[in-house]
Design brief:
Largest sheet of chain B: 7 strands, mixed
Structural class of chain A: mainly beta
Oligomer: heterodimer
Largest interface: A-B, 24 and 22 residues
Radius of gyration of chain A: 14 Å
Strand content of chain B: over 45%
Number of strands of chain B: 11
Order of helices and strands of chain B: EEEEEEEEEEE
Amino acid sequence: AQSVTQPDIHITVSEGASLELRCNYSYGATPYLFWYVQSPGQGLQLLLKYFSGDTLVQGIKGFEAEFKRSQSSFNLRKPSVHWSDAAEYFCAVGASSGNTPLVFGKGTRLSVIA
Amino acid sequence: DARVTQTPRDKVTEMGQEVTMRCQPILGHNTVFWYRQTMMQGLELLAYFRNRAPLDDSGMPKDRFSAEMPDATLATLKIQPSEPRDSAVYFCASGTGGMGNEQFFGPGTRLTVL
């Protein structure tokens, strides 16, 4: 069965500092991987996705993620965090068949301090 | 700009009352998901539909929850009778069912049962 682990429940970074949010997945075949962001009081918005090809994926808002098959990871990164990046971030894995729902991690809450 | 819409955005009701939440998926999307988000449990899948047919509703308490798609442009989630433990944010998401089941989320309905 698919599963997603986000080891960090809450991370605090200073504005302008770099960010890396961790995501580990468990899936028997090639996964489809997603990062979503949820701002307070809002729904989930897709940041980026990996289906195949280049393992470094660029997303919106300056985010990128790298798929590492050997480590079963799909970590999200941003070189310089802005205060508006404070939100909850969810990693998700989907099956290649597309016939089963995404499996979401528990989320990582990001706080940004001045 | 195609979006998933949900109504109402906020609902406060008393225990025992019936609650109906509505979702309009993105036009052309044939897969609809209902999620519940709480602080304790995170994001939980309640049910999902493909081509208006329910594929899985195992995440839903059957005795009080029901989900339907009267037509391709409307999905409903009903709770009868509601209980305080149902207080949560309920999200609807839609997709095309392909490519790992990428999903597009609505803004959610915040339900408070007193």
